[in-house]
Amino acid sequence: MKTTLLVIVLTAVFSGSLFGQRNFEIVIERKLSSAACTLGYLIADKKVICHTLELPWENNTKNISCIPPGSYNGILRYDKNDGWRIQLENVPDRDGVQIHMGNYTKQIKGCVLVGMETDIKSCIVGNSKLAYSKLKDAFYGTSNPNSTPDKNIIVTFK
């Protein structure tokens, strides 16, 4: 009995679920790329949350290209008008890349916008505020957080 309990506790400690950080994993699954935009889905902790809108691929040129495929660490920012966003770290040759609200490619400078619906022909996402709220709920586990959980944010672009 004592051995079993010890194994359970040690497993929880070393997996990060009891005392340490745990990962909040986001996958941006790109589904359509054109000369005007890149559209896809945002999956958080293995659940589809919303649609995504990015600029088209332009060889990772700052402010005019979508983000190169790969995994990036994220940090939270609370200093923008929306009060909360995820900023990606260590994107090659880029800085300030974020996931945030918006509807049109003209609102993007290399970032990712979220929305609940898409218009493929016009390259827009709609109902961004609701999508953003769903992303925050997925991160915090509640729509009314009173503290920031100790989570590593990992964003993977496919």
Overview of the structural elements:
The model is unreliable at 2-19 (pLDDT under 50). A hairpin with a 4-residue loop joins strand 8 (117-119) and strand 9 (124-126). The chain has 158 residues and is α+β, with helices and mostly antiparallel strands. Helix content is 17%, strand content 38%.
Q: How is the topology of this model organized?
A:
Layout: H1 2-15, E1 22-33, E2 38-44, E3 47-54, E4 70-77, E5 85-88, E6 98-101, E7 112-115, E8 117-119, E9 124-126, H2 128-140, E10 151-157
Parallel strand pairs: 1-10, 6-7
Antiparallel strand pairs: 1-2, 2-3, 3-7, 4-5, 4-10, 5-6, 8-9
Q: Which tags fit this structure?
A:
single chain; globular; alpha+beta; 17% helix; eight-stranded mixed beta barrel; two-stranded antiparallel sheet; 158 residues
Could you give the order of strands across the largest sheet?
1-2-3-7-6-5-4-10
Percent of residues in helices: 10-25%
Largest sheet: 8 strands, mixed, barrel
H/E element sequence = HEEEEEEEEEHE
* Principal-axes shape call: globular
First-last Cα distance:
45 Å
User: Based on DSSP secondary structure assignment, what is the total number of beta strands?
Assistant: 10
Low-confidence stretches: 2-19
Radius of gyration: 17 Å
Mean pLDDT: 87
Which percent range describes the beta-strand content?
35-45%
Q: How large is the count of helical segments?
A: 2
Structural class: alpha+beta
